[in-house]
Amino acid sequence: MQLLGEEEAKRAETRTQLKDDNFLREMHSRLVPGIENSEGRFEVHKFTCAALELPDFSDFERLRSLIDALIAELDPRDFLGCTTALEMLAETAATAPKCVPFFGQIGLLHTVYELFKHTKAEPDMGIIHIGSYFKPKKCSKKCTADADSLTKFPEFTADVFDSVYRFDAFDVTRRQLAFETLAVIGSSSGAKQILSQNESLFSMQRAMSHLAVAVATASEPSLKARHLEAVQMIFDQITVPGSEQKQNSSAAAPDWEEQLLHRWFRWLGEPFPKLLLQCVRDPISEVQMGALRVLMALLHHQWAYPHFCAVNGFIDLLVDRSVANFDADALQLKHALVCRVVDAASPSVNAGQMELLRDYRVKGPFWLTPRMEVATEGAG
């Protein structure tokens, strides 16, 4: 509660400053060019972003000159300033999606695209810059990828796919950005249509195959978890005709989209369901939770059930209460997963399995068998 109060107080202060012409003139006076004044300028840019991120902000023209000053920092000759400005713009786009159309109107996307092309040859300034702008992890839940970007910015799209195809040649940062940006690109219906019509240019078959390999071979748990998150992002975005894109929606996607997603899933490879269940059993919580979230996303789709029910031990894993390394969050997520399987009523789940699942759902995520209760008391 105290934190919320502090945040609201900061917003109130920003609103007051935004209305103060003298304050805005002071902000302009601090925009002195030169690296030696970078710190002062970025203090101004912090105010600009804070104002843009206000829930009730709409007067973009009042801040236009300050916004232009922030965009002017996108100078590849100043790596730190350029990267910081991109990070700030990305954060603002993620926090306040209403800014995205305005950014498009003033040509920011084209500015970033030109920057991307200019710095493409530099390993430290290529996709890291454009990936920072997209901020896949933060943006994906708040705004959708612009399908037109696939054709508007062909070199960027091609570079993302090329980075996915050659992911094992890159460092961890570029590798995870490549897959996360791929997930954002493929998350909207419009983008799915474009990708399906341009398989010769952007091969999702190769991309999904490489994503599965990346999950299987990631040696660091945090990297494996990020790759799992990319898989989740691709299959978790459900588009309902005539409405905004929703996540974890109870409504089904259009038939063509379901068919496309099923094809993409098959391109992950036949071993992928077994790999995912191995990740569920992983002792590292972030990998385990990542795998459970992927299952939640996949089992929203009826076509997924035959693939997973064909794996020995899948239902047993769902109803097994003796998995020692599951924390409270994992147990709750596993219970939600069981509820999803029961509600789906897939014919791939036989009557005996369904009875076990229903019993698990009724007893809840934290129910202990008598043997487990005795063991718990003995441990105490």
Automatic annotation (TrEMBL):
Signal peptide: none
GO cellular component labels: cytosol
GO BP terms: proteasome assembly
Family statement drawn from the similarity comment of this UniProt entry: Belongs to the proteasome subunit S5B/HSM3 family.
Protein name stated in the entry: 26S proteasome non-ATPase regulatory subunit 5
Native source organism of the sequence: Globodera pallida
Organism lineage string: Eukaryota, Metazoa, Ecdysozoa, Nematoda, Chromadorea
